[in-house]
Amino acid sequence: YEAKQTLPPPYKQKLNEKDMIIEELNQRIKALDKMLYIKQLQVRKQDEVIQKYLINELINSKITINELTNSPLQDASEIQKLKLQFLKEIQKNIQLE
Fold first, then answer.
1. Taking the complete model, does pTM exceed 0.85, yes or no?
2. Residue 45 and residue 82: Cα distance in Å, rounded?
3. Of 37, 18, 31, whose CA–CA distance to 69 is shortest?
4. Predicted local distance difference test score (pLDDT) of residue 71
5. How many helices (H) and strands (E) does the chain have?
6. Has residue 34 been placed in a domain?
7. Could you give the number of structural domains in the chain?
8. Does the residue 39 lie in any domain?
């Protein structure tokens, strides 16, 4: 973190942009994790209260389902694939620093 402070402005801005991209990807991954958990609960037909709570949390979060994907997420494997894709993007962004 100290190193960031001493960098010349153009580099500093690049790092800030990277941090923002990584943060956004992390937010999407968190949303996907919630969706996966909801799917699991739906499959087991249990904990309707928790399901409703998580669904409301997703609705209230800044990330919409449409932002996460263009296609509706039918099953957990699609959600996992999307999550992996975001994780790879994070790796790529970290390596570019």
1. no
2. 24
3. 31
4. 47
5. 5, 0
6. yes
7. 1
8. yes
